[in-house]
Fold this protein.
Amino acid sequence: MKVKIKIWLECGDGVAFAEGRRLLLEAVDRLGSLNAAAKEMGMSYRAAWGKIRATEKVLGTKLLKVTTGGKGGGGAVLTEDAKRLMINFNTYKNRLNTLAEKEFKRIFGK
């Protein structure tokens, strides 16, 4: 057996941030485009943008700097707040996974 945990941050009745949103931001950072990131993740641009906006609203900060299309096309880059959020979320998740594994072994002896 192996322990698995899921972590998400809530504010009010909704999700503020979770693994899916972290992966979306990671893809935007790598691809330079929310549209490309959404496609890679198999979601619509509208759904991706909705998740980003919802998190921005809850946290009160911008996560993306977006440029609209034109001759060279548009794009998106992460803000410093988005980068810090991803780092903090990963740090928190990794620490909880380590703790969960230790407790699992202690309690179940596996």
